[in-house]
Amino acid sequence: MTHALLIDTETLQQSLGLPGLAILDVRGRAAYQFGGHIPGAVHSTWHDYSDPNAVPKGLLDPDRGRMEQKIRALGISQDSDVVIYSNPFDNWGDEGRMFWMLEYLGHTRLRILDGGWVKWVQEKRPFEHGCVTPKPGTFTVKPVAAVIAGKDELKHLVKQPHPGTVIVDARSLEEYLGKEVSGIPRPGHIPSAIHLAWTGFLQANATVKDLQTITEGLAEKGLTQDQEVICYCTGGVRSAWLYFVLKLAGYRKVRNYPGSWWEWSRDFACPVEKDAKGLQHILNVDPQVRPS
Length: 292
Description:
Layout: E1 6-7, H1 9-15, E2 21-25, H2 29-34, E3 42-43, H3 64-72, E4 81-85, H4 94-104, E5 110-113, H5 116-122, H6 151-157, E6 165-169, H7 173-177, E7 194-195, H8 211-220, E8 228-232, H9 238-248, E9 254-256, H10 260-264, H11 276-283
Parallel strand pairs: 1-5, 2-3, 2-4, 4-5, 6-7, 6-8, 8-9
Helix pairs in contact: 4-9
């Protein structure tokens, strides 16, 4: 699919070695180092940018200088053409998280490799092993408030009607309805949030589905492009992939909540909703139903 936020495998291969190109592999380090990676790609994951002093893992490191140095170490400058890829079938939308984070920090030349490592390998394109250490870049962090949402803002938002803003939960339906999850103090979802799973936007070859199909699916959920959309999940990773998909579909006012459920569920001043009957129904454990 041709889109300004995506790059296809053929175009990327033709661009390998060009000055100003920075390729980010956001898979696990072992996969990158020993399983092979796209020539010239450097390794980085969203974990590298989490707040080291916060319990909720999704919160970003507030130390801008430290963030800046880490991004510069990837060979990234303001004018770099950054391409992000992963194995789309073996992660939680990590490429979307890196895209969103760099956009929030002020980078404007970002694309995700359509099909990622899956399609690259299927097409038998070149790869290499080992680590790449690029020449440091000169990137300067300039946060863009319009693409991030915080806990206090959401807490205020849900206390009143908010027809112009839609809150979207990107987790599984079970999590949304209230399934107990290890390490999460309270199950459920943010009041008024609608469920829109982060999965289901890819084709069998790991490329993104055509935009008409995506747009129709979003419309069926009641989303319209004139609304502001705030996405969340457990730690702002799956929701960042949904953020990216919404951007692909032409939504202009989209934000990601990086603290997400890890943070929200730990603050008992934050309201939580559950749907026990709905959860029982999909898990087939409705106590009202007895075998005959």
